[in-house]
Amino acid sequence: AASKETLGFKTEVKQLLHLMIHSLYSNKEIFLRELVSNASDACDKLRFQALSNNDLYESEADLKVDITFDKEAKTLTIADNGIGMTRDDVVNHLGTIAKSGTAEFLSQLSGDQQKDSQLIGQFGVGFYSAFIVADKVVVETRRAGESADQGTRWESEGEGEFSLESIEKAGRGTQITLHLKEGEDEFADSFRLQNLIKKYSDHIAIPVFVQQDANEEDSEGEESSAPEAVNQAQAMWTRAKSDLSEDEYKEFYKHVSHDWNEPLTWMHNTVEGKLNYTSLLYIPAQAPFDMWNREASRGVKLYVQRVFIMDDAEQFLPAYLRFVKGVLDSNDLSLNVSREILQQDKQVDSLRSALVKRVLDTLEKMAKKDPEKYQTFWSQFGEVLKEGPAEDFANREKVAGLFRFATTTSEGNEQTVSLADYIARMREGQKKIYYITGENHEAVAASPHLEYFRKKGIEVLLLTDRVDEWMVGHLSDFDGKAFQDVTKGELDLDELADDSEKEEQKQLEESHKALIERLETALKDEVKEVRVSSRLSDSPACLVVGQYDMGGHMRRLMEAAGQ
Ligand code: ADP
Ligand code: MG
């Protein structure tokens, strides 16, 4: 049944292909890394499924990637014996981009190649990168466990469409043939390919073989022994730290995270004792485009004794650390764990606490040793971290210690002041951490509520992120000092006033008694009470909400949401 059909790419694939070919050309060799990364993922998936169905190995249990080429025909082929794809899989994975949020992502593109290539990097366009160097790509694949006549051939020139055809494929897995563009024959070369594999794919856990050049084989003159893998072919996180270079860590990050940018930092630890595991966790340098998408994947890649179990194991990290990527390899969990089992497993809680502590400690250290780098982190992920106090009560003080704020003392709207900085600068007699919330920096910085604090030289946190009011609500205090909204209730400013000011205040209250009474009667339906206040120094009057009432910013948000 050789039913051949031609289908159109989804619009977003067309746009992305076009953009990628142009903006990534200067870095074209990375296509090989992407294809080998996919081959490795496919082998991981096969090994996992074979745990419960050994027949999937079809008497070929040695997983591997083979890279061959034909100089005359100018083709390059990457073949794996992993899980393979059915016809439906092919249509779904190689004809669309499944990630939600793709349309918003594309609308952010500017047409400026450099900026766009960075954005594309975060998006991770994997398979399609083959079209940077190929003008035709042929994928032949068969799903493990299906019969040989269930193969599929996918073919495309990377323009608007692709064709599909049923084929016979004896071996399971996927074979991708690139018809190299004019001038790209450098990739049909054994030496070049071997170097690229060493550079980008050394960390891949299964062996990668590269065909020898014809003349190399001749010159050896004798029957060559079994070919050797070009890469280390060992799960990277099982290797000693001292044996691993920065570049290896960075390449591994790109493989696990599907992010093309370099990570900001990483943590590689092996723990033996009550818990037995190895973790290799990364903090990205850039927030992914879908960080605020609830369905976006999060969590680590889980392995049990070197065997891949699942992607996005979100049980091991709380949502406020959803930007962390990496691998957890446990020696304690059983090979047949499932998401359901993980939800009830007590060990998972211990592992989770250990990983959280590791991430928070690393951030603390970074903040101390390399404030500039920490500032990069904060600008990308600060808003996510602010979900911490609400989600992780036990660690709320530790998480809050990592927060940075814009204040009435700091310059501009950059968030650079820590709570420790704030406390160190507190005035004598000051017991609270004062803050004001609002829509944007200009608005809060100009608020009349700040007049008194400015006059007295008391610093006030200027909170303008969406999560802020909610965050302070859950945090409530830090280092024993309560948070106080300067627009709410009594401010305890008395303790900060000197004696002459207290005297002045008393006299004012006396002398304005009549006025206050008149105002209270006139505004009876509008306000709860009228008071003489030391809050203001230039403005004549301001509105204040009760200590336990909703803040103005929150109230406007609720109103906007129709509540
Ligand atoms: P990603 O790897 O980030 O998912 P890719 O564009 O690299 O994105 O690949 C898209 C999808 O195509 C993969 O998720 C996988 O389902 C499928 N795929 C790609 N290459 C292979 C392969 N060699 N074997 C099996 N499936 C593959
Ligand atoms: Mg990929």
Strand content: 15-25%
Overall strand count: 18
Could you list the spans in which at least 5 consecutive residues all have pLDDT below 50?
none
Question: What fraction, in percent, of the residue positions are helical?
Answer: 25-40%
Structural class: alpha+beta
What sort of overall outline do the alpha carbons produce when their principal axes are compared? elongated
Mean pLDDT: 88
Bound molecules: adenosine-5'-diphosphate, magnesium ion
Number of helices: 20
- Provide the spatial order of strands within the biggest beta sheet: 1-6-5-4-7-3-2-8
Distance between the termini: 59 Å
Oligomer: single chain
Radius of gyration equals 30 Å
The main β sheet shows up as: 8 strands, mixed
Function: Molecular chaperone. Has ATPase activity.
Family: Belongs to the heat shock protein 90 family.
Pfam family, one: HSP90
Biased composition (Acidic residues): 214-225
List keywords for this structure.
about 575 residues; alpha+beta; five-stranded mixed β-sheet; 18 strands; binds adenosine-5'-diphosphate; binds magnesium ion; nucleotide-binding; Chaperone protein HtpG
Draw up the topology in text.
Layout: E1 5-8, H1 11-23, H2 30-50, E2 65-70, E3 75-80, H3 87-94, H4 102-107, H5 113-123, E4 134-142, E5 151-156, E6 161-167, E7 173-180, H6 190-200, E8 208-210, H7 214-220, H8 246-257, E9 263-271, E10 277-284, E11 300-304, E12 307-313, E13 325-330, H9 339-344, H10 346-369, H11 371-385, H12 388-391, H13 396-400, E14 406-407, H14 419-424, E15 433-437, H15 441-445, H16 451-456, E16 461-463, H17 468-475, E17 477-478, E18 481-485, H18 499-511, H19 513-522, H20 552-560
Parallel strand pairs: 2-8, 11-13, 15-16, 15-18
Antiparallel strand pairs: 1-6, 2-3, 3-7, 4-5, 4-7, 5-6, 9-10, 10-13, 11-12, 14-16, 17-18
Residues 34, 37-38, 126, 258 line the site of magnesium ion.
